[in-house]
């Protein structure tokens, strides 16, 4: 005789499987690296890695074009997604992962976190972790505060969610209307390990991708993933602990 408890267990397992089936199609394996990520002497990445970052997506108007441009140029980038945008267009966040990109947390509604303070700031970050986990099948490990605005309170929230705060060493100023040549020129100032701020919704940044790829290749630099460093990195008017490394 099957006990009542056993039947409940079976029902719970079925629900869990259904939930997995919901999550897994979107959590398909990340594409293999699209560029030869070898830092050996004379190799294409002989001078190291830089971090290309695109904030505020997913954006319906530009996301696919940006991914196509990056794929064509054999570049990988980190997308700091706004939680409510990812919830509205989860397939665009998953498209970034499938294209070999990385996905980070950029809050749920893009507020100035030090201004709103806790608990609202914590909830902005935590709810976005929840959404991105559900959309991608994995919890993000990287966080970028909107406007680069951070504080001790925000940093404590970020740390409590096992996230790494990622600012930038180069601001493309694409958000302020920088032209495509200006964005290309900004990227040309990236040093090994450096990270550039760009945005998912800016067409000029989509248009800048091929020339950024050419410039990086000519300097022996490759697009890398972003990781923790114990070193103090100066940028965006603060100190942070993130660098670009081999994927
Ligand atoms: Zn932003």
Labels describing this entry:
single chain, 247 residues, alpha/beta, six-stranded parallel β-sheet, two-stranded parallel ribbon, 9 helices, 10 strands, 40% helix, 19% strand, disordered N terminus, binds zinc ion
Task: Provide a short characterization of the protein structure.
This protein has about 250 residues and is an alpha/beta fold.
How is this fold's topology laid out?
Elements: H1 4-23, E1 49-55, H2 63-72, E2 78-81, H3 83-88, H4 90-98, E3 102-105, H5 113-116, H6 120-136, E4 142-143, H7 152-160, E5 164-165, E6 170-171, H8 180-187, E7 195-199, H9 203-218, E8 222-223, E9 225-235, E10 238-245
Parallel strand pairs: 1-2, 1-7, 1-8, 2-3, 4-5, 6-7
Antiparallel strand pairs: 9-10
């Amino acid at each position: 005789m099957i006990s009542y408890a056993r039947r409940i267990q079976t029902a719970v397992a079925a629900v869990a499987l259904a939930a997995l089936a919901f999550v897994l199609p979107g959590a398909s394996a990340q594409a293999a690296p699209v560029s030869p990520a070898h830092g050996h002497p004379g190799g294409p990445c002989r001078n190291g890695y830089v971090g290309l970052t695109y904030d505020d997506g997913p954006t319906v108007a530009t996301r696919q074009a940006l991914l196509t441009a990056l794929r064509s140029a054999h570049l990988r980038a980190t997308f700091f997604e706004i939680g409510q945008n990812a919830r509205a267009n989860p397939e665009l966040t998953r498209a970034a992962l499938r294209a070999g990109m990385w996905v980070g947390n950029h809050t749920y509604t893009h507020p100035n976190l030090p201004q709103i303070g806790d608990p609202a700031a914590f909830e902005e970050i935590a709810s976005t972790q929840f959404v991105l986990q559900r959309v991608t099948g994995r919890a993000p490990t990287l966080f970028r505060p909107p406007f680069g605005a951070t504080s001790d309170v925000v940093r404590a929230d970020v740390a409590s969610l096992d996230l790494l705060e990622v600012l930038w060493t180069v601001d493309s100023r694409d958000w302020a209307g920088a032209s495509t040549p200006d964005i290309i020129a900004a990227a040309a100032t990236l040093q090994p390990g450096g990270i550039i701020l760009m945005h998912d919704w800016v067409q000029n940044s989509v248009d800048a991708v091929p020339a950024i790829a050419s410039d990086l290749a000519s300097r022996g630099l490759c697009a890398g993933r972003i990781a923790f460093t114990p070193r103090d990195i100066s940028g965006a008017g603060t100190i942070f602990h993130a660098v670009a490394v081999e994927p």
